[in-house]
Amino acid sequence: MPSKILCDTNFLLIPLRFGVDVFNETDDAINDITEFYVSTRVIDEIKLLKKTAKPSFEKELLFALKMAELCTVIEDNSTGLVDDSLIDLAIEHDLIIGTSDSELRQKARAYGVKVVYLRQRRYLVLDG
Predict the structure, then answer these.
(1) N or C: which end of the chain has fewer CB within 10 A?
(2) Can you name the residues that pair with 124 across neighbouring β-strands?
(3) Distance (Å, whole) CA 5 – CA 89
(4) What is the C-alpha to C-alpha distance for residues 48 and 57, in angstroms, rounded to an integer?
């Protein structure tokens, strides 16, 4: 059974910002075949950011939405912080969180959730 990665917004931006293909590199970082998921909350967050973004960041957010289209969407009707909802989904569905957000990484690890993240702007590693 493949490993399941739940992507946050900045994980979807890694290919554009750092030239690392998260969809291929994650298999190596985890030593397993991977499937990618994105929550409706993350998609909504990207769309909300896009409304007030400067043109250069808006292009990045459009890229993130394109990347999200390559993922399976998980319906998330929770309220509160998006990061907290990602942790809840990861626990509920046995998912690994894909992020570059150090605060989210620390929170996830405190709950025993595995995280895959970009190290040294060059490669992905699994924490946990």
Answers:
(1) N
(2) 118
(3) 11
(4) 12
